[in-house]
Design goal:
- By secondary structure, the protein is an all-alpha fold.
- It has six helices and no strands.
- It is elongated, with a radius of gyration of 16 Å.
Amino acid sequence: MPALAQLYFKTAIVFLIVGIAAGIHMSISGNHSVAGAHAHINLLGWVTMALFGTYFAFEPEKARSRLARIQYGVYTLGVVVMMPSLYFMLMGNPALEPVVAVSSLVVFAGVLLFAVVIFSSRKTAAREAVSATG
């Protein structure tokens, strides 16, 4: 399995742990105001990253491309910033709304980069992977 696919799966499981912990905290406290953050952690962190990892496991040439590594960095950065800022915004800190907005755009940019990876040809990805390693 390509290293990028493994990295996506490792990152995804971290977000699953965080998402479950947020859900348990909501349940214990009885405060469900952060349900939106809980859902985003699980969907954008766990599910989407696991799907990205699955795609790259089936497309090893594309997983070795420079664009795929950039896409991982952009998407992950967006999610890592967005999740806690959304959580604390929903807990009553409206000053974080601009951080949530900007990080959402970073996440979206990561998704758009993934679309470019998907729609790029295997030949382009293979060429890029060779030039990046040599």
